[in-house]
Amino acid sequence: MSQRILEPGQIETLAQRSIPRIRLPARESLFVQRAARLRALAPTSRIADYLHLCAAIADAQHAALAGCAPTMPSAAELAAAREHRMPPIPATDWPRKPPWRNALETICTAVAAQPGFPPEVARLAERVAAAAAAQLEAQADVLLGTREGAVDAAAAPLLVAALQVHGVAASSRLAAGEVAPLDVPGVCPLCGSLPVASVVRAQAQYQGYRYLHCALCACEWHLVRVQCSQCGASGKDIAYRSLSGEDDADDAPADAALRAETCDACHRYRKILYQEKDTAIEPVADDLASLALDLLLADAGYARASGNPLLWAADEA
Ligand code: FE
Ligand code: FE
After folding, report:
1. pLDDT digit string (tens) for 14-59?
2. Is 1 helix (H, G, I), strand (E, B) or coil?
3. By the number of CB atoms within 10 A of the CB, which of 73, 86, 260, 266 ranks highest?
4. Which residues surround ligand 1, an ion (CB under 5 A)?
């Protein structure tokens, strides 16, 4: 029996044709699942109180999302973005007023009214809600990286939460076919932001494929496995670490549902989640809850490729 041998390039082309390249978030479930996951992970986390606060924020995000109607690109703008391989709704300069500030107000009001948190939490939410519009816009620009300035680390999670609502309100209104992969694999093809982590999905049509998850708009885009999502290195430079020990094969993961994918070419890492090991995984929540793994990686000399926007260090500017 004769077999046709495919060249590597042909194999890639054939494989890519059948892989769903883009996954967009579901408005009705994203923040609900994130809140539930944060609460599920809190009891075993060293930052349990913070995870509970983030869960309350996620509840408020879900409520704010219902009333958030962002500016959407026209069909012609979407087609132009696909043609030029540019994000159609770039977070850095897409119009966000007034919907994102309405979302911020909803989130601050809800968080301020939450019982069970220290009084500083309500004071913070009230301070943000009362801040001048120009100050909030300036801080949003700093958080999105379009303006130099110091990050207000305490207020940042609330502002980012509102920017996430705005991003998801837009991404969840698009169809996957309206968004095309970019030439830069480490950047969200919908909004141009950086991913918070990657996920190997388990649902039928996505099974075994790895997706990067946008920290802002929750769009997911395909990236082949065993490849650095930061610099593109592959092969021997890539290794995997979990809190239970060091593993080295991506196709034979240990029991851990979450590991760090490290790169010895750029000395950076991003976490990778395996949905088949735990169907409840949620990239933003699981990343926050696994700070211990970040500490382990820092000790080993690796830097995070990009941060979790719900967690800002006070000295970050
Ligand atoms: Fe995005
Ligand atoms: Fe790398």
Report:
1. 555 689 999 999 999 999 999 999 999 999 998 999 999 999 999 9
2. coil
3. 260
4. 188, 190-191, 193, 214, 216-217, 219
